[in-house]
Design goal:
Helices cover 21% and strands 27% of the residues. By secondary structure, the protein is of the alpha+beta class. The longest helix has 11 residues, at 108-118. The chain starts with a helix and ends with a helix.
């Protein structure tokens, strides 16, 4: 699966070739939807585990932070959507897989992508962040 995901990221063409229609980022009380039609993935990489990752999963974040819900519409999947969460403050993005979560630390370009996409949105409270070690253990 990771090889297929990396192959998806390696395509230098536009979002249509990557199979993405749009990305929606939601905070506490509002959402922002961005078309992927002319998105430059080399300049602004978009990571949304578990569907698209830039490498192997990382350990889950050890602390909670304000976060946003991310939904990506997949163009060639009969309306399928991928769902993730991003916590830019601690530089993590994650998504549910089976009964758990898979996480990736955001590299600088991917972090800048999410800072751009979340601009003007109020994040969800840290204590509601899904999938972190702290929320899984009740710490």
């Amino acid at each position: 699966m990771i090889a297929a995901v990396l192959g998806l990221l390696a395509v230098p063409a536009g979002a249509d070739a990557k199979g993405l229609k749009w990305v929606e980022v939601c905070g506490q009380d509002a959402c922002s939807k961005t078309s992927m039609k002319h998105w430059n993935f080399e300049r602004r990489p978009l990571i949304f585990p578990p569907k698209v990752m830039s490498g192997k999963p990382d350990e889950p974040p050890k602390t909670i932070a304000p976060w946003y819900r991310v939904t990506v519409a997949l163009a060639h999947a009969d309306g399928e959507k991928a769902h993730s969460v991003v916590a830019p403050e601690i530089k993590y993005v994650g998504g549910r897989i089976n009964s758990g979560f898979v996480w990736e630390r955001l590299k600088p370009k991917a972090l800048q992508t999410y800072l751009h996409l979340t601009k003007g949105l109020e994040p969800n409270p840290a204590e509601t962040m899904p999938g972190s070690v702290e929320t899984q253990t009740g710490a």
